[in-house]
Write a structure and sequence with these properties.
single chain; 205 residues; mainly beta; 4-stranded antiparallel beta sheet; 3-stranded antiparallel beta sheet; 3 helices; rod-shaped
Length: 205
């Protein structure tokens, strides 16, 4: 096919000169033709770190999270040579392969950050004649209240840090009400619960 190659024991240094001659059957050897070793793209291009992608588990990214990391890397590096590929590992490590097959990497510490967990809300005491459940939380966060029968009600914490959900009917003594809080871009908090207590009128005759 008119092509030739020789293996190198090790890669050559930048600016080193390689010379080649050709000798055809029955002819004198050709003149030398030189070439100078040039740096790879990875030698001359330093990729920018992307904006970190928030993920739920830094040890096992989802396909959607990997795509988000890839997009972030490409957005941070608009001058990548045409044909450059970006591969994201399960843990967020990024491998950048240039058209000349040289490679750069960006570690997961520079590409992803674990999603924080929301703060636990507070739930005010609930008694047997209350028609709503109230509490405090982070302004703008979503509160999900789980009633004793499994019914869930949601509301948003106001700018004053307070929230409330209305009850269809007062709850029975010793019933348990649970609440979780979800802040923007954070995982939901753990449950916080309160047990419905009797009113003073229930206790005093």
């Amino acid at each position: 096919n008119g092509k030739w190659e020789v293996a190198l024991d090790a890669p050559l240094a930048k600016d080193a000169v390689v010379k080649a001659t050709q000798k055809e059957v029955g002819k004198k050897t050709s003149d030398e033709v030189p070439t100078t070793v040039v740096p790879t793209t990875a030698d001359t291009f330093t990729p920018n770190n992307p904006v970190k992608t928030v993920v739920d588990n830094t040890a096992q990214l989802t396909p959607a999270e990997k795509t988000a990391v890839e997009t972030a890397v490409k957005t941070a590096n608009p001058t990548f040579p045409t044909g450059t590929t970006v591969t994201v590992a399960n843990n967020g490590d990024v491998t950048i392969t240039y058209p000349d097959e040289s490679v750069d990497t960006i570690p997961e510490s520079d590409t992803v950050v674990k999603r924080a967990t929301s703060a636990t809300p507070t739930v005010n005491p609930v008694d047997t004649d209350d028609t709503k459940v109230t509490g405090t939380g982070v302004a703008g966060a979503t509160i999900e209240v789980t009633l004793p029968d499994g019914t869930k009600k949601t509301t948003t914490v106001g700018q004053d840090g307070k929230w409330e959900v209305s009850l269809d009917a007062p709850l029975a003594k010793d019933a348990v009400v649970k609440a979780t809080q979800t802040e923007v871009d954070k995982k939901p908090s753990g449950d916080v619960s309160t047990t419905v207590v009797p009113t003073t009128a229930d206790l005093v005759t």
